[in-house]
Amino acid sequence: MFWSKFANLVKSGCVSRELKTKGSMTRRITAGVNAPGYSRTGIRKSKTSRWRAAALIALNLFMIAHIIQWRIMGKTISPIEPSETMHTLQKGFVNAGFIFFTLAILATLIFGRFVCGWGCHILALQDLCGWFLKKIGLHPKPFRSRLLVYVPLIGALYMFVWPNAYRLFWNPEHAALIPKFTNHLVTTNFWQTFPSVAVAIPFLFICGFVTVYFLGQKGFCTYACPYGGFFGLADKFSPGKIRVTPACNQCGHCTATCTSNVLVHAEVKQYGMVVDPGCMKCMDCVSVCPNDALYFGFGKPTLLVPKSNAIKRNYSLTWPEEIVGALVLLGSFLAVRGVYALVPFLMALGCAAVTTFLALKTWRLLRAR
Fold first, then answer.
1. The CATH number of 25-44+233-309 is which of 3.40.50.1970, 3.30.70.20, 2.60.120.1440, 3.40.50.450?
2. What end-to-end distance do the CA atoms of the chain give, in Å?
3. How far is it, in rounded angstroms, from Cα 242 to Cα 190?
4. Does residue 28 carry a pLDDT above 80?
5. Confidence of residue 90 (pLDDT cuts 50, 70, 90)
6. How do 182-183 and 76-77 pair as beta strands?
7. Domain range list for the chain
8. Rounded to an integer, what distance in angstroms lies between the CA atom of residue 105 and that of residue 115?
9. Could you tell me the pTM of the whole model?
10. Exposure of 246 by Cβ count < 10 A (0-12 exposed, 13-18 middle, 19+ buried)?
């Protein structure tokens, strides 16, 4: 009986009582439109989703070609992976990952999180898994937390700031404020900083499928990706936003379509633009708007939005659950990180996020008995 209730509770998604009472956005949308270019829910099909899928497929094909070229020639461009930036900051190794991460942050400061939405292989895997789950009748519901959304930023500080601070303040006799930079754009050991294939497979399974199933689409981006911590912060300074015209009639199609779990209809009504740093500029909301009321444009950044106009949000957790969840996540991360010298940092964050969700579900179920 307990496990049956637990399975049903997990499948139902961790949504607040308010959302369950009011009903989800998709139930409030007029259904039954049977016309070309429309889905069963009556929402116009996104035209940009195909372009974005093509961009993400091309990205993954490029990654495969990069590995093949290294295997054949024995030498290639260093990994174009943001985590390589750690070696630049700590050891002065200027590599392709550092250059890419720097350019991506600069682009985000101007255009918002386009790089996340159109150029991330982990996001591509999450979208693929989300699409597959919907095909088999499973619709992951977003897990909304007040505290856990700060995990990516804390993870970013741990990866890119803490090692340098430790080197400067606790080992000053051997530390330089700015390390001597050396050229590491080309490498003969491409896989040196990556986990083995035996670890990479469960890592991708957890970050792609498991986080999506339990935390909702882009669950890893929201609660575990350290790069997203910096991208989300940069997005607050960005003048590039999804904006709205007076043609908006609050139909809610944009929110129902958004796979980043952004309350698009509410934000454009309140602010005239999307201010949520979780918006990855997938452009699906713009494409499905029946009145063509949404567009991408430049103007006031999020930082200039008055905090007094904040939207009242419905969260999945109460404040006591938030605090317990934060402690569970920290404990889970410390327990998993580096186990048998195998579990990498990002995988540990993904495991901790899912473990926290399951622990809170179990706690809520036991209290309800």
1. 3.30.70.20
2. 11
3. 38
4. no
5. confident
6. unpaired
7. 25-44+233-309, 48-231+318-368
8. 9
9. 0.87
10. exposed
